[in-house]
Write a structure and sequence with these properties.
Layout: E1 3-10, E2 33-38, E3 49-57, E4 71-72, E5 78-86, H1 89-98, H2 109-120, E6 130-138, E7 144-148, E8 157-161, E9 164-168, H3 182-191, E10 205-206, E11 211-215, E12 221-225, H4 241-254, E13 262-265, H5 270-279, E14 286-292, H6 296-309, E15 317-323, H7 327-330, E16 341-343, E17 346-348, E18 358-363, E19 371-376
Parallel strand pairs: 13-14, 13-18, 14-15
Antiparallel strand pairs: 1-3, 1-9, 2-3, 4-5, 5-6, 6-7, 7-11, 8-9, 8-10, 11-12, 16-17, 18-19
């Protein structure tokens, strides 16, 4: 998982309008590179819009510096920050290259998303197979838009004050005074979720799943749904066992592509066992089972996972991690990237001072059969 944050203002906003976020608070989401870029620092600063974009990167696809973010189009008109992964990026890239668009990276899905948004606008959302939250800035027109994936796997929070728009992957990265939203907390205790755009904080909203937003050159914001599970879908015949199994295999295979080690959570249950079996058909994968020392249910889950791995022809490696409630075991060391440089090859940054091993974790989802999240750190995963 990566982290994104930024601030955008139109007209003659206050000078400190772009300082309303702190990407450092999201450092644990992306230990491989952390870059912040101000629109005043690029070769041709925009006239009617000012922005500052930041990205904390966990490198999964195309580990080169040219795939770092914020990412610009060849003419530096468009700028993108993106958290997630586009699983069908290769087929989209082939289609975009056939349309005459050029690519500077080897196989970055971020650049595929950037060019898809340039070529198709919001219609690109109907072509994406993946999990994502992103913001795209058009320096020429002053327009900004962004979106969140269909299932809302990737988070997106924002604050809109006048003509200033501040956003981040987590509320804690949006700075300012905090007032608790009591109605949202009450709703959470009742339903274990907060519906719509509300969050635990007054003034901070979340972009709902399957929605995109657009902000015009005057700073006016509009939010619209682009997908609904009960509209425009023909559905699938759940009695077609072979067809459903083929779909599950395809979903797992799409999400196995990575330039780093790939692993699975293995709880011992049906979902994770099926995913681990499919993922390890033609390769070895690392299977992680997280247990708590004094939890009977956790120990039973580990015994089920171990029993699965002891079956014939299971090629997964076994790794057990004991979770301890101590502050020391929860701390993360993340590299710090200062003074990022913009060039034709992308944004370069010094190597982080500390790197943690990383692994992409596969988990079930109702969207594509498998839900992926990325995590850094030794044998530990975090929610997206």
């Amino acid at each position: 998982m990566c982290g994104i944050a930024g601030a955008i203002t139109w007209g003659n906003g206050p000078k400190d309008a772009l300082n309303g976020f702190d990407i450092g608070k999201l450092a644990y989401r992306g230990p491989d590179a952390r870059c912040t870029l101000d629109s005043s620092e690029i070769a041709r600063p925009p006239a009617e819009i000012r922005w500052k974009l930041a990205h904390a990167r966990l490198s999964i696809l195309d580990l080169a510096e040219s795939a770092n973010q914020p990412m610009a189009s060849a003419d530096e008109r468009y700028w993108l920050v993106f958290n997630g992964e586009i699983y069908n990026h290769r087929s989209l890239r082939t289609e975009l290259e056939g349309m005459g668009l050029t690519f500077r990276t080897n196989h970055s899905d971020s650049e595929v998303l950037l060019n898809a948004c340039i070529a198709w606008g919001t219609e690109a959302l109907t072509r994406l197979n993946g999990m994502f939250a992103f913001v795209l800035v058009d320096n020429l027109t002053g327009k900004v838009w962004g979106a969140r994936d269909r299932m809302g796997i990737k988070p997106f929070y924002y604050k809109k004050e006048g003509t200033t728009f501040t956003f981040a992957s987590e509320p804690k990265a949006i700075l300012g005074n905090r007032t608790v939203n009591r109605d949202a907390i009450l709703q959470y205790f009742r339903f274990l979720q907060v519906e719509g755009e509300r969050t635990f904080y007054e003034g901070i909203s979340k972009l709902p799943a399957a929605h995109y937003f657009q902000i015009d050159p005057e700073g006016n914001m509009r939010i619209q749904r682009y997908w609904h599970p009960l509209q425009g879908n023909t559905g699938r015949d759940l009695t077609d066992v072979s067809g459903c199994f083929d779909l599950l295999k395809e979903a797992v295979e799409l999400q196995m592509e990575a330039d780093v080690e790939v692993g699975t959570y293995l709880s011992g249950g049906l979902d994770s066992s099926i995913i681990t079996a499919l993922a390890s058909r033609d390769r070895q994968v690392s299977a992680f089972s997280v247990t708590r020392e004094r939890s009977t249910a956790s120990r039973q889950g580990w015994r089920s996972a171990r029993s699965y791995l002891q079956q014939p022809d299971q090629s997964s490696h076994q790794r057990s991690v004991v979770a301890r409630r101590s502050a020391g075991s929860q701390r993360r060391s993340a590299g710090r990237c200062e003074g990022c440089h913009v060039s034709a090859n992308g944004i370069s940054a010094p190597s982080p001072t500390v790197k943690s091993p990383k692994v992409r974790i596969s988990r079930p989802s109702s969207a594509t059969g498998v839900r992926n999240s990325t995590a850094s750190g030794p044998a530990t995963a975090r929610s997206p």
